[in-house]
Amino acid sequence: MGIIAWIIMGLVAGTVAKMIMKEGNGSWLSSLLFGIVGAIVGGWIGDLLFGGGRLSLFNPISWVLAIGGSCIVIWVAGRFLGARR
């Protein structure tokens, strides 16, 4: 996928993951960052499970993996950032 597709997928995946994880606070930039990192994590998990080359912007599995990866990233970030408060 191209960089623009990763950014679009990251923004959408991060926003959906924040709604799922009930992490409504934060800016669109945090949604974008969580989403892009989550898409990378989800893509890595997808490559391990399904093999490479099947993931794309228009594949529903890619979206599920990106949102799932974003949820994992938000959960991990919450544990590390929550411990510092």
Automatic annotation (TrEMBL):
UniProt-annotated location(s): Cell membrane
Pfam families in UniProt: Transgly_assoc
Keyword Cytoplasm on entry: no
Single GO cellular component term: plasma membrane
Record's protein name: GlsB/YeaQ/YmgE family stress response membrane protein
InterPro entries: Transgly_assoc
First-listed, main subcellular location of the protein, grouped into a coarse class: membrane
PANTHER family xref list: UPF0410 PROTEIN YMGE (PTHR33884)
UniProt similarity note: Belongs to the UPF0410 family.
Membrane topology, record value: Multi-pass membrane protein
Spans through the membrane: 27-50, 57-78
Top-level lineage group: Bacteria
Keyword terms, alphabetized: Cell membrane, Membrane, Transmembrane, Transmembrane helix
